[in-house]
Give the backbone structure.
Amino acid sequence: MTALTLSTAAAPGLRADAIVIGVAKGAKGPVVAPGAEAVDKAYDGKLAGVLETLGASGAEGEVTKLPAPAGFKAPLLVAVGLGAAPDDAEDGAYDGEALRKAAGVAARALAGSRKAAFALPITDAADTGAIAEGALLGAYSFDVYKESKGTGTNAKAKNGKAPLAEVAVLGAKPRDKEHKAAIQRATAVGEELNRARDLINMPPNDLNPASFAAEAQQAAKEHGIKVQVLDEKALTKGGYGGILGVGGGSTSAPRLVKLTYTHSKADKHLAFVGKGITYDSGGISLKPAGHNETMKCDMSGAAAVFAAVVAAARLGLQVNVTGWLALAENMPSGSAVRPGDVLRMYSGKTVEVLNTDAEGRLVLADALWAASQEKPDAIVDVATLTGAMVLALGNRTFGVMANDDAFRSAIVEAAEEVGEASWPMPLPEHLRKGMDSPTADIANMGERMGGGLVAGLFLREFVGEGITWAHLDIAGPAFNEGGPFGYTPKGGTGSAVRTLVRLAELTASGDLG
């Protein structure tokens, strides 16, 4: 894991493999960003011209490498694009997400290096945190299943390089409480988000409901979190028909994991519920060829909830947070649920299953009702739920639905604050009628058009009366099948982790809504 430190050292005298500086797009060409004054001075104030000669423009995601000036102990200079320069760029006021992305790009470009010093613009502790978080997320690499060479910090994958080992953030104040807290927060959130990425990237022959539950138990033990795991016997005894129905076709039995973080002074309680389908074949309603290859990521919601609860515990937030991981593997077999079957859910409602590939809402329904029994102040569920949401919002934005407009807005604002793209979506009442069933209380499918909203309406049926609730459909951004960008790698992204953590922080401080 990449180490984060604060340093007051001047860039010329710092022993590192590289110095990272920022360059922005100005009206007349690239502009060297604040933080790189010592570097620019070594070029007699002509660094912007040198970078322009090398083809740099300051565009977001751009990386330009050049030898460090004479007298610098670091041999390499890495200029990373920040995008358009703000009007007040001379004061160093760059957007936090721009800093986060730039740090992530630089960290990825420096894979294989032992140490890099990041001399990016910093005006306050929030900038320090953004740079540290971006670097930690950008340095991420999933190489567990690749043949490795070497040991320790020299270890690297057979066909790749080890992640950047250490990031020193320059321009911050190591003894300042706010800057130290920013680094500590970035470390906790970044490491837990990367833990979620690891789980999402893990192949389904190694990650099943039982092994996922074991991972949760181990983390809970490390961080003082209470954990309860309901196996197939306990689920049967409790009447969790949704989770059991979905998991019935697999040789890997389902699990419901409850993680409980409490703070002695907390007066608010949040419940996070995550869809954890460790592999989704579609069941009897089998997915067509070309749609199965990434279905190991269908547990991204549970991974996000898991990571957020652990991060809240590590940060010691003054709020009680309960995480519910609804874990199952959706497979076709003689014991699998069939289209036409009726399941009796944990709430007592019956559901006619019209499509076994609409399974996520079934496991979430049981977990939502279980969470409701504790009467939390709010419930947020997270799920890679519908292809319809991907069609609506693309691959980088998640949809937010809720039974309370103000809460939905608060979530969208929290997501924007931490750099996650989201969009408020409605729950049109006229779509509910499409789920009427002649056989059961409700069907698991409704109108095809607006399918993401239909899924949200289905979930709403299983939220306890009077409880504020929101649904995050992360089907688009949960798994990146394209190339890496910013601090986002190829594969599992850890989408929604930072939004959930921010919600917990806002609740703890009394600033939510």
Observations:
- The chain has a mean pLDDT of 95.
- The first helix runs from residue 37 to 42.
- The CA atoms of residues 14 and 73 lie 6 Å apart.
- The two ends are 35 Å apart (CA to CA).
